[in-house]
Amino acid sequence: MVVIRAPRVYRPQADTWLLARALREVPSLRGGRVLDVCAGSGALTVAAAAAGAGSLTAVDLSRSALMSTWMNCRLRGIAVELLHGDFASALRLPRFDVVVANPPYVPAEQVAGRGAALAWDAGPDGRSVLDRLCAMLPDLLTERGVGLIVHSAVSDPQRSLSQLRELGANAQVVATGTVPFGPVMRARAGWLAANGFIRPGQREEELVVIRVDRTSSPVAADPA
Predict the structure, then answer these.
(1) Residue pLDDT tens, the chain, 224 long
(2) Parallel, antiparallel, or unpaired for β 141-152 and 204-213?
(3) 115 CB contacts (<8 Å, ≥6 apart)?
(4) What are phi and psi of 119, to 5 degrees?
(5) What's the rounded Cα separation, in Å, for the pair 124 and 214?
């Protein structure tokens, strides 16, 4: 998929495409209400539209990201509702059949990212956005709604699973992939190793897609 990006907007990478493949496996996507959290370039919004979504909403803190999402949808004749701000703003809308999220998850020395780093920096443990998203996600979903979250294994997928299950949701790992470090992870590999997030010399990371169902019925999943 070719996407247009405004300056400082996150470029779709392996995590985006891993999540897009998992998204296509969700039956409720066709004809459903879909929310793209931390939309960035809008690549996942476009993927949801291509898979038959009924309506689309994209939310992001970055106006440049929302402009990119709008442009990529506009070029394809896709109607999308844009929300500028934190994903908590979506709570005021009717619930969604599918929520897809590629949030910031890279551990960083600073508490919050700035500028382009808003797309990846997630505090000292990589959880500054993930913890809030896991706490809020079930409230964004319809009774039979499905959520999909992608993040790196360095940001503790087990913690995401535990938080979601404690809220009564059925949470399972449904896709994984090992990829070489991107430029951000390479640049801070020394700091990540010194703080125990990776092994010394490690230059690959595992990506994980977590599926969240509000219903208790199990879904096919990888062990986690």
Answers:
(1) 889 999 989 999 999 999 999 999 999 999 999 999 999 999 999 999 999 999 999 999 999 999 999 999 999 999 999 999 999 999 999 999 999 999 999 999 876 656 778 889 999 999 999 999 999 999 999 999 999 999 999 999 999 999 999 999 999 999 999 999 999 999 999 999 999 999 999 999 999 999 999 875 544 444 44
(2) antiparallel
(3) 8
(4) -80, -15
(5) 30
CB 171 within 8 A of CB 164: yes
Q: Which two tokens stand for residue 189?
A: 């590999």
Helix (H) or strand (E) holding 215: none
> How many angstroms separate the CA atoms of 106 and 30, rounded?
32
At residue 224, the 3 state secondary structure works out as coil
144/162 Cα distance (integer angstroms): 20
**DSSP classification of residue 95:** P
Check if the beta carbon of residue 52 is closer than 8 Å to that of residue 30: yes
Taking the C-alpha atoms of 33, 37, 103 and 127 in order, what is their torsion angle to the nearest 10 degrees?
-90
**Beta strand pairing status for 170-180 and 81-84?**
unpaired
How many whole angstroms separate alpha carbon 90 and alpha carbon 93? 5
pTM of the predicted structure, to 2 decimals: 0.92
Are 16 and 9 spatial neighbours (Cβ–Cβ below 8 Å)? no
